[in-house]
Every structure is written in structure tokens, then in C-alpha cells.
Amino acid sequence: MSIRTIAIAVVIGSFVLAINTTKAQEHNRVTPQAVRVAPLYQFAGATAGSSPYIKLVADAAGAMYGTTANGGLQSLGNVFQLTPPSLPGGRWKYAVLYSFGVGADGAVPESSLTIDAAGNLYGTTYQGGTFGYGTVFMLTPPIVPGGSWTETVLYNFQGGNDGRNPYGGVTFDNAGNLYGATQQGGPYRCGVQRYSCGTIYQLTPGPGGVWTETVLYTFQGRADGAFPDTGLAIDKAGALYGTNYYSGGYNLRYGGVVFQLAPPPQPGGAWTFATIQDFYNIGQPSFEGDLVLDAKGALYGTSWSGGTSDMGFVFQLKQSSPGVWSMKTLWNFSGADGSLPQGGVIIGKGALYGTTYSGGDMLKCNSIGCGVLFQLTPGPGGVWTETVLYKFSGGTDGAAPQGALMRGKGGAYYGTTSAGGMTGGGTIFGMK
To answer: For the whole model, what pTM was predicted?
Structure first.
């Protein structure tokens, strides 16, 4: 079990609902819109998997891919595919492409996937591999339609200074290198249990399909924080952005940082680390969702705690001059409009879209709400307006969405819920 999973049990166990939103925010809340949300697949558990925490990715044909940390042939997780129907109104087809745990192939994939132009899928496993500390893997589609996908382990984490237990996924740069973070690893020790504090790594492809790992940064648990728990965003200059779970290494609830790791000006030089925003006693950024960048280089994300009602908020980070960043809270959640946003946000047409783990209909899901789909729209004077697009019921539509949304063809949005559905194992849904 990850450090982050233990901590959320503490937070939810002490979760107290409050409705003390400011009048200004109440004025800028919009009543729910009529959108159509349809469950495309309901996870059945066992070999099919259950409880996806991730953002989906799609190929050029519209097929969607993701992971489940639970279920599979060895109960150690799956990679799945959801194929759209050939005719409008038809059923989507679910298929398990790969089940982990058959050997040193990895176990417990907690991250979203990345897809390349050839349709290869890339991701990480939190455990397993040759040394038991996780892997970076690639899944290659079959040459003949209907054949089996092939898994290749690109790197086995050894549990030392090279890193261990990658929680987030991987990101490509324009040269074909992969970047990611490990939740633990490195020579420094953080937190009460004195875990190693985590790393940022690069994987470089070489001859014969051999990938080489380079540790770009090792966290120390000081101003840089500790325990990165998401994937990395990358800007046009190749700088990497991510979040840490701890701020300073000791506080279990409030803390974490948003950081930047900038590439060297000359090849072979050292990367430059900077803490952009410290969330100590403010909230705790991200959870299952990566940061996103807009066309002007501003960062957007969610904090799943903190805010005026301590139910989380959506934030923006903008750079006014080199190295000078300022944070703005775009929305504070208060319960009926959502609470505990964990999946981050995505940038749609003129707005931000996201989900919250709880909130919405407060009479359901043990009186904390089953979660919402929301839209944030900028307005005059820099004031943002929230629209609750949909409130989950905990039935066949699902409950407790933890991953970010994905924008598909035709303006539709797709996502996953970690609970609900016919067997309680979560759903894949579409919204239009």
C-alpha cells in the first residue's frame, strides 16, 4: 500500500462537511446543467479488474485504454481496452490486454497510460519487477488483428538511489525520452517512518531496445518536499512540473509542493530544481491527476484538501517573471458543488473540466456525496464560475471518480469512477 493510500484513509475518516462558502462564491455558482452521462462499462471485478483510479487515453480510432490496480489473473492489476461500437447506439467492447503478475513483469499499475503514434502503451507498476520495487513497461499491439499484446519491461527499479515505487505515469519529450517520478528512493530519508524521499528520472532509448535510466533529481524532504505521487507535465522548453505529497517531510495532511525541474542550458549539465508553491497549511495538491499547462505556460491543478470549507480547491499558478510564480484559487468546494477533487483538471474549449471524489447529492454515498463533474469558466475581472454538470448517484453511473477526464472526438468527455456500478467496482462513463 502506498504512502498516499494510507493518508487518504486518515483524511476521509476525519472528514467533516461544512457549508461556509463565501457570498462571492455563492454568487458565482451555477445550477447543474442538463448533460447526458452514460456508463459505457461497469467493472465486474475478478479477472476483469476493478476500481480504476486513472485518466483514460485514446488512440486515433477512438479506442480507450487504462489500468486497474486490482483484479486480473493474479489479482495484481490489468491494462484494458474499451472499443467504441461499430454502429451508433451499439455496445462498447471491453477487453483485458494484459494481466500483471506472471513473473518479473510488474504488479499493481496505479498510473495512467501514455500512448505513442504507433499505438504502443507506456506506464508504470508500483510494485513487482525483478527487484520488487516497480517497473516502467511498454505494451505493443499485435501485428495481426485479434492477436495478443506484448509486454516489455523497459526498466526495473532496484530500490536504491535509482528510485522505487513509481506512482505516476511517464511523459515523452520531443526526442523520445521518457520522464517520471518515483514515490520513494534516493539517499535521503523523510517522514516519521523515514522512507526514502523519491526521485525524478529519465529513460533514454538505445540500440536493441535497451533503455537507460538517469536520475535527474533526488528529493531531500526540505524545501523541495518529498514523495512525488503524480506524473509530470512538460512545457515547450522541456521543463518538467509535478507535485509532492509532503511539504518538509513530516506533516501527514496539509502540505506538498508544486515543483519545476528545468533542463540544463547545455547538454550534459545539471537540471535546475525550483519549488514553485509550498502548500503547507494550505492544502495538498493533486492526488491522481497531473498538472496541466495552458498555451501561455500557466499551470492548473487541484488540491484535495484545504480551501474555505477544507474540501479542496482548484488553483492556477502563473509566472510573472522568470522564477516568480503566483497562485490563485479559482474555486473552493463546499459540498453540494463537490468535495475532495483528486483527479486534477483538463483544459477544454474556454473552460476547465474535472471531477470530485465526493460531494454533490449529500444524501447518497454515506452522506458525503458520490462526486460530481464540474466546469470552471473564466469571467470578467478574473472571476471564475463553477457549473455542476452532473452529480453521481452511486448506482450504475458510478461513484467516487479519482482520475482526470479525457476529451474525445466530437467534444465528448470520458472518465472512470473507482466505485459504484452494478458490482461496486467502478465504471467507465461518457459525458456529452
So the answer is: 0.92
